[in-house]
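Contributing new complexes? Match this layout with iron/sulfur cluster.
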Amino acid sequence: MALRIIIGLALTMVAFAIAGRRLWWLFRLATSGQPAPERLAAVREHPGRGAGAEVTEVLGQRKLLQWTIPGIAHFMTFWGFTILLLTLIEAYGDLFSKTFAIPLIGHWPVIGFAEDLVAVAVLIGIVTFAVIRLRNDPKREGRESRFAGSHTGAAWLVLAMIFLVIVTLLMARGAQIDTGDFPYRHGAFASQIVGHWLAPAGLGANRAIETTFILAQLAVVLGFLVLVTYSKHLHIFLAPLNVLFSRRPNGLRGLQPMRSGGKVLDFEEADPDTDVFGIGKVEDLTWKGMLDLGTCTECGRCQSQCPAWATGKPLSPKMLILDLRDHAFAKAPYLLAGSDEAREQLPDAIKAQANRPLVGTAEAGGVIDPDVLWSCTNCGACVQECPVDIEHIDHITGMRRHQVLIESEFPPEAAGMLKNLENKGDPWGMGESKRAEWLTELDFEVPVVDGPIGDDVEYLFWVGCAGALEDRAKKTTRAIAQLLHTAGVSFAVLGPGETCTGDPARRMGNEFVFSMLAQQNIETLNEAKARKIIASCPHCFNTIANEYPQLGGDYEVIHHTQLLAQLVRDGKLTPVTPIEEKITYHDPCFLGRHNRVFTPPREIMEQVPGVRAQEMHRCKERGFCCGAGGARMWMEERIGKRINVERIDEALGTDPDTISTGCPFCLVMLGDAISAKKSSGEARDSLEVVDVAQLLARSVARPEPAAPAGPAAGD
Ligand code: SF4
Ligand code: SF4
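Output block (do not edit by hand):
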């Protein structure tokens, strides 16, 4: 008896010492990152939000269950292990007393049954995981496998250890039944089966089996504990923390302002020598960023949904996180050295790791290749999918900010766009005078305001650069204006008073240009006393609604599809002219996934007589990007298949007469891909892409324009 206690406690002390040392090291590494007081403040000020996320995402496994089979397998394993903690208490108790039972519940058959049930559920779960891994073997499936680039050896080792945990548990319990030491007389069905198999071995052998497998179970569980702290299974401990400190509702919608030392950077006072400008070194990540790196489970869900990865580009959001993590771990001795003298004493390999540029080509020893960094469209699919709430876009933007503001390294073709934004206020450099030209083609008047909007005007229509200046997008703008006029909605526009919201500059990493444009617009909007804003561009919508509040601009912003759907519902717009077409709707990422506006555009299409809506395979939360976001619209797409062509190929699979959308960028990108398909004879000549507003305008009866006043009768 004494020996088993000594062995059990010795194993426990060794395992806790190793795991504890590792966790302390991880804590020190995470806190070597930048402060993030806003994350702590958010948890303090909104405890309900954090608690809700823990319940839905950690306990309820909401995001994991988006993938049905692996989700259920993970759910069973997670809850199985949680309930099996009871068996661990029983194993420790058995070290001290053969007849140990958990106080109060220890002989209740329901507990014995529940423990066996979850043990079997965990076995089913790990067999499912094994099958999933075999079916997605990266050696066979290549890039198609979501496990491509993951540490698959460690994953198999963990599955083997979980298997051993269950096997040793059932063996010990089976033997306990035969020795009479088992606390539950009924209910433990699986243990009873094992006990039945072991019974012929006799009492003495079963006593030995009981002791051996209880110690073996403890050894495996403790070994697993140590392995967890050294492997991707660290997420078992870190996921609840990462979920707690993640942005709510998620890491989508607006980008975060640039911070240095936990404070929002003031460009007028900032000093590039002492302040942190974006992420130029791994330690420029905040502790939350570091926590993200440690929490990644390597599941590859993000990778499987990434449009850049799907079209052959080198960017995989998973590998980006893993490369940053591997680098942070390798650089850790340098970061934690404590003094320059201690750093000098470090081996050359660690010093070389510390000197690697964070962004740079392989030849330059870079951790993240520039082609990886600049391939991101900010579509948000990775953030949406990640079961542990990792915020990939924040890290990508952080690195872009450093590259643009400090290194002046970015795709050269985007320089023209930035210059145009600074000098002319729009990405094409067309200038403010052109912004009101679309109005001249209307047969009614729209007030162009240059000061406070009158009290009789309900909405300010924010037209956006594309909506005002790009020929295809201008058709949408006119359709919206026409529909608002038909419905009797009072609205005004800023015309030349508008300037770019700054979205492309911010998504590219040029926070300086973004804040310049944003401040100018906020001043204009405040002067206009704008209360309700209609945005036709999802990028403008997202920026004004979710990012301008960071600079003091708080407005009620509505996307045109939301307002038009409401007007149809209210009977103020009645689609009557049939459009006998099969139409597939493309979800713009910044309207759908980022801001969860999925229903209104579909609702409008449903109301148009004759329209047969056909969803693409990748739609709504899983919609596939058009390739324009993240300022990619102004960069060349030199690697892999063009993202807009991939999307059109999917759309063509539905054999549509028309493709609809709700974003001027998508309109242009998909329109370009359709033109290419028409030239190669892969799409019919009549195929077009239109905004949902254009569809509605074609179907809604327009009021007759007022007849010009003629000579009075008798004159
Ligand atoms: S935001 Fe989109 S493009 Fe960028 S890494 Fe995530 S999934 Fe890929
Ligand atoms: S970042 Fe999230 S979704 Fe991607 S591999 Fe890691 S845990 Fe999975």
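Reviewers usually confirm one structural detail per submission. For this one: The radius of gyration is 30 Å.
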